[in-house]
Amino acid sequence: YSAVRFAVLAALCLWAELPHGLLPLGSLGRPMGQQVLHSAFIDPLLALLRDGRACWDEAAACSAELSLGSMLFNAAVFVMASVLMPLHQLITVVMLLANPHYRNGTTDEELAGHVNAKRRAIEAWADARETFVNEELWRQVYAKGEEIDSWADARAAFVDEELDPQKDPKGGLGSELTHLN
To answer: Which of 55, 66, 156, 181 has a CA that sits 20 to 30 A from residue 144's CA?
Structure first.
């Protein structure tokens, strides 16, 4: 479907002329078609390529309608669309030809198993790291002899002290916990 959509959009941009838009309703009333494609995208790109230094010094030398920033943005959008849309189509065709799971709309069970195993490993690592950091924080707070009733109090006490630049020349949080990384 995307190939048809891109082809229709390209055809409308290249051949359609709608100087008054589709309907006199909101943005549908703005000019559309080849004239807009050229005046807003292709002409600024060509002007930048032809007279780049002159455009940089004085944008009015290249376009009376657009600022230098608008010209650069429109040129970048046009170049990206011109390169990325065909690239997207090429990748889609290659995937359809080379990957039977993608072509048939089925699930690659082997790949799904690897992804789930990696997700579980990452979650286990994150849980272990969080537990270790929490235990290390409690140990440090307990070693300071402070009365702490909750995890939030412990973190607040530790963070307040660590963010004091007079006490920590490295700028705060992390100097005592660098071994945890």
So the answer is: 181
